[in-house]
Amino acid sequence: MPVLRILHLVGSADNDFYCDLSRLYAQDCLAATADPSRYDFQIAYITPDRQWRFPHSLSREDIAVAKPIPLFDAIQFITAQNIDLMLPQMFCIPGMTHYRALFDLLKILYIGNTPDVTAIAAHKARAKAIVEAAGVKVPRGEVLRQGDVPTITPPTVVKPASSDNSLGVSLVKEATDYDAALKKAFEYADEAIVEAFIELGREVRCGIIVKDGELVGLPLEEYLVDPHSKPIRNYADKLQQTDDGNLRLTAKDNIKAWIVDPNDPITRKVQQVAKECHKALGCRHYSLFDFRIDPKGQPWFLEAGLYCSFSPKSVIPCMAKVGGIPLDELLMTAINETLA
């Protein structure tokens, strides 16, 4: 097989937080999957000012010396590079949508879901509506804008309609708590979702990959939650800023999250529901879904996270590893699906 020239699309056109998060994952991916006999990796790094850079690596030093150029020049540069496929590493909404669509226009193949699908998944209420129409159970909810009054009696969960990493999420136990919870949610999005609180149970995440055209369910990841002390997860459960200003993945410490034994009876049940979600949303190559498991063992869809950086710390590679699929095989499977 000839060496594939793969462009890693890194950074954020939205904010510094997502820019750092993207760089963190992409740096790990580049280090873990480097294989000169298979891949020639190139890097495109986008910053919130919408400038493009093409650094030799994702070290701060190499990024600093790379010349910033506008979109027009970046397109000229990319189209001259004979890129075989692009690997999206951007987590912001523009990165998940507009920048993927750009590569559709350039007719450069890329791993992962298409911009129309990622746009739907980024809006939690729209994703819920689609999977519910396919027969998947979802918490009863409503979408509110500024000035709207919630009609669902607490306990409820209030969250931004389009934000990740549990930013702006609150558990509302009394109706008097709604104002503060909505104010917090509206800091991150123009719309907020109020949905019925699903009693614990458990909270799990399920990854799906496509191999030879077939959907394969991966071992589940379970989160540390407790009906009394920790009924929902928050931002600190996922990410933390270190003293040197970098981001650390707190959810990878095997304390706040861990991989479920594949023989656990909940695994097959959740995998089947996740496959229904994958098909209903029109996903390709891979998908990732969060579920709340109620005390009766019923999975309830919470949200879709349709990304994978192919870093060893990324959720889908962690799940795949436990399922007997090493990172290099996982990446090659995704590449084969993309080229097919």
Q: Average pLDDT value?
A: 92
> What is the count of helical runs?
11
Largest sheet: 6 strands, antiparallel
Rg measurement, Å: 20 Å
How many domains? The number is 3
CATH architecture of the largest domain: 2-Layer Sandwich
Short descriptors:
340 residues, ATP-grasp, single chain, Rossmann fold, six-stranded antiparallel beta sheet, Dala_Dala_lig_C, 17 strands, nucleotide-binding, alpha+beta, D-amino Acid Aminotransferase, Chain A, domain 1, 11 helices, five-stranded mixed beta sheet, ligase, Dna Ligase, domain 1, metal ion binding
Task: Describe it.
The chain starts with a strand and ends with a helix. It is of the alpha+beta class. Strands 10, 11, 12, 15, 16 and 17 form a six-stranded antiparallel sheet that branches. The chain has eleven helices and 17 strands. The protein folds into three domains: 107 residues, Rossmann fold (3-Layer(aba) Sandwich); 57 residues, Dna Ligase, domain 1 (2-Layer Sandwich); 140 residues, ATP-grasp fold, B domain (D-amino Acid Aminotransferase, Chain A, domain 1, 2-Layer Sandwich). The model has no long low-confidence stretch (mean pLDDT 92). It is globular. Strand 2 and strand 3 form a beta hairpin.
